[in-house]
Amino acid sequence: MNYLNLAFYKFTTLTEIPDLRERLKGLCVDLDLKGTILLSTEGINCCVAGTRDSVELLKAFFSQDSRFTALPLKESWSDHQPFTRMLVKVKKEIIPLGMPEIEPAKFTAPFVGPKTLRDWFDQKKEMVLLDTRNSYEIRLGTFDGAIDLGLKHFRNFPDKVRSLPDDLKNKTVVTFCTGGIRCEKASPVLMGLGFKDVYQLEGGILKYFEECGDAHYQGDCFVFDYRVAINSRLEETAAVHCCGCQTPVTAEEQ
């Protein structure tokens, strides 16, 4: 395993973004890192891969900037470079929702840690698991009993939530996604629509895999790179993209 995959995001107010973009792009090129970094006034979303030394130098760069303290880093290894180029893009949102009033840096739902969620499953706690990912991601795997909203794009989330039964508003709702970023916006939407007891899985599925393996989770987790999917051991699976419909296909379906 020669390539270390580093993923993280953080909602934090960013200014002087063009300068930050140029410094990051230059550093990543010099370190021969590949992947994508999104920058916005609302924060940063990063997913890159390279050698251990290169990744550590990038982490050191961020550690020197007070805006990037306590980054929720997620790491995994692969035997090949899962990205083909290095992109540093400036976007309106690091995760598009189209609701500027939702500002996770100022307000979001409380987190529930992976081990606590596993305990809730073991204890058969009454709760609703709400998958905030797109349906093509969910077909590779999800938590036991989780609700698939049928999303084609995260922007559809508010409308889909409005169609949920009203009795769910009084239940404990746990939102989850791949790494946590979508839930930071999804959870405030739920609370604004009257859901009273909302949590979000800290670190998403990837952090859950790291700490709890596949307990109460069926299948793999889709990732947005050439690995397509990883299993509960954070290893690349045999899943591929269908050339016709561009949806992920498991090894059994091939």
What can you tell me about this protein's structure?
This protein is of the alpha/beta class. Helices cover 26% and strands 26% of the residues. It has a five-stranded mixed β-sheet, with helices on one face. Strands 6-11-10-7-9 form a five-stranded parallel β-sheet. The chain has a two-stranded antiparallel sheet with strand order 8-12. The mean pLDDT is 95.
Rg value: 18 Å
The structure class reads alpha/beta
Task: Return the string of H and E elements.
Answer: EHEEHEEEHEHEEHEHEHEEEEE
Overall strand count = 16
Q: So what's the overall shape?
A: globular
Strand composition percent: 25-35%
Q: What tags apply to this protein structure?
A:
globular; 5-stranded parallel β-sheet; 5-stranded mixed β-sheet; 7 helices; alpha/beta
Q: What is the structure about, briefly put?
A:
This protein has helices spanning 17-30, 52-63, 114-122, 135-138, 157-162, 181-192, 204-212; strands at 3-11, 34-40, 43-50, 74-78, 86-90, 111-112, 128-131, 141-143, 147-148, 172-176, 197-201, 217-219, 221-222, 229-230, 240-241, 248-249. With 254 residues, the chain is of the alpha/beta class.
What is this structure's SSE topology?
Elements: E1 3-11, H1 17-30, E2 34-40, E3 43-50, H2 52-63, E4 74-78, E5 86-90, E6 111-112, H3 114-122, E7 128-131, H4 135-138, E8 141-143, E9 147-148, H5 157-162, E10 172-176, H6 181-192, E11 197-201, H7 204-212, E12 217-219, E13 221-222, E14 229-230, E15 240-241, E16 248-249
